[in-house]
Amino acid sequence: QLQLVGSGGGVVQPGWSLRLSCAASGFTFRNYPMHWVRQAPGKGLEWVARTSYDEYSKFYADSVKGRFTISRDNSKNTLYLQMDSLRPEDTAVYYCARAPSPYSGGSPSFLDYWGQGTLVTVSS
Amino acid sequence: EIVLTQPPGTLSLSPGERATLSCRASQSVSSNLAWYQQKPGQAPRLLIYGASSRATGIPDRFSGSGSGTDFTLTIRRLEPEDFAVYYCQQYGSSPLTFGGGTKVEIK
Q1: CA–CA distance, A45 with A67 (Å, rounded to integer)
Q2: Per-residue confidence band for B8, with pLDDT thresholds at 50, 70 and 90
Q3: How far apart are CA B32 and CA A121, in angstroms?
Q4: Do B49 and A112 touch (CB under 8 A)?
Q5: CA distance A43 to chain B (A)
């Protein structure tokens, strides 16, 4: 059964860093592009970042460019989001999600499976 | 960036009624549009992709239509488990963008 399990969220102060993880199972992780999407409390969905299956292509939302870094370890079936210089407006539940087409690179896509989300709170 | 608008913000309907949800794009996305359902405390679930293709395991009471800039999600007869928030998402161009969502609530 396909699973995406997010972890690493917590409460941090503005300016601090945090690294989120997303452990994948039930499919051949190394073949699929992966995304991070976030949702501020009581708000809608905001796409954050995506990586191709081989990390050759990476894209970021303007709101996080230069502060967040998406990466993956295909030997560990794990996706990461390194978040630096955190701001209060980064407070959200962060979801990892899979794009459905294996071996695809930088093309935009819908997201067919989502993790359960991990909450990041940035507050002084 | 393509902006997606989902009026109205809330639909109040009764079980058994038909729900018609709208999503309008600020420029053409062709058929590169998906719909998701989200219940409180849960991750979004893919319902429709390619504007009209149902995702695996999605009941046939859910259907999608449209192309270009105007799209519709129809729920033929609302079941109790269908009361939730629905989001559209375009993948016609980067960055991916989502609509603000329509909440379908019990009348």
Answers
A1: 19
A2: confident
A3: 33
A4: yes
A5: 8
CA distances from B95 to A50, A64, A107, B85 (A): 10, 12, 10, 22
Which positions ≥6 away from B22 have C-beta within 8 Å?
B6, B7, B70, B71, B72, B102
For residue A102, the model assigns a pLDDT of 84
Smallest CA–CA distance, residue A117 to chain B, in Å, is 7
- Is B37 near chain A, with CB under 8 Å? no
Check A110 against B89: CB less than 8 A apart: yes
CA-nearest of A91, A71, A89, A93 to A81 is A71
Instruction: Please give the structure tokens belonging to residue B65.
Output: 């239509």
The C-alpha atoms of residue B10 and residue A39 are separated, in whole angstroms, by 19
- Separation of alpha carbons B59 and B52, rounded Å: 13
* Contact predicate B79/B21, CB 8 Å: no
Determine, for residues A95 and B44 on separate chains, whether the beta-carbon distance falls below 8 Å.
Answer: yes
Check: CB of residue A47 under 8 Å from CB of residue A39. no
pLDDT tens digits for range A57-99: 999 999 999 999 999 999 999 999 999 999 999 999 999 999 9
User: Given CB atoms, is A110 within the 8 Å cutoff of chain B?
Assistant: yes
DSSP 8-state secondary structure symbol assigned to residue B55: P
